[in-house]
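Hi Q.,

Before the meeting this afternoon, I wanted you to have the fe (ii) ion prediction in hand. No need to reply - just skim if you have a minute. The sequence and ligand are here:
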Amino acid sequence: MNLATPAAARADSPFDLGREEPFARWSEAKLEAYPAGLGELVVEVGDPRRLTAAEYAAIAARLRRANMALYVGPADPDRAIPIELARRFGAVRLDRNWLSDPDGLTSLTVAAGGARSGYIPYTDRAIQWHTDGYYNAADRQIRALLLHCVAPAASGGENRLLDHEIAYLLLRREDPDYIRVLSAPDALTIPPGTEAGGRARPARTGPVFRVDPATGTLHMRYTARRHNAVWKDDPATQAAARRLREILDDPATGVLRGRLEPGMGLISNNVLHDRAAFADGPEGVRLLYRARFYDRLQTP
Ligand SMILES: [Fe+2]
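Predicted structure with the ligand bound:
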């Protein structure tokens, strides 16, 4: 079957809970194509700002297989890299949050003080499994996430990665009710916090799994945090959240693991990921650029 065709463009969407057969066919093809290790997702590039046709095709193929690819290019701190790379795949609407730099990128590095130091991404602590922007409003969901590594930590800072479609697939194979309850509009609530300009952000309630009606693609909104995340108070939702968490912590489920080195980056449709704790050394600090887009990456 052709994984390249957006699901909604087909009458037989695999994400239609009412029909088992398209899901079964899609699952089989998905698992067969899914990489056994991170190495299968790596594409060497000469200049990520100007991909050759072959490099572009290689990245697109991996995005279709696993919703993510890793590029390896020359060490280069140019902030244009994630922007230009995303643009090549049709993602242009940057999510600017109040901690972004003026160009819309976020510099992920340990903040010694100021507003950023109160947020986990700007510390050296571990970050649990999540997709980006789970606290965003429904109309500002993050569909593409890029990371570009300028400097790694002296130790630690690895990421685990899992295509969110695999999480969906494994849950649904076990029990379609998991998907049903996690697709409910009140499945997961993020309590109030702080947003752009330091204004109070209201609570955000929404589904974990959502199928974009325009493209038929699957979006996932998730955090494994126990604090600042409130699951719907019913046994079925609680059980589904528990099972999802077990799947993410089970190395047998296709979880990939690796560390970005200088010149490397992740280009993804906001797949599930986490970050290990890390330590900076005397020779420098870990620095990654992060770019988030409302657009999903387009692959031919
Ligand atoms: Fe993240």
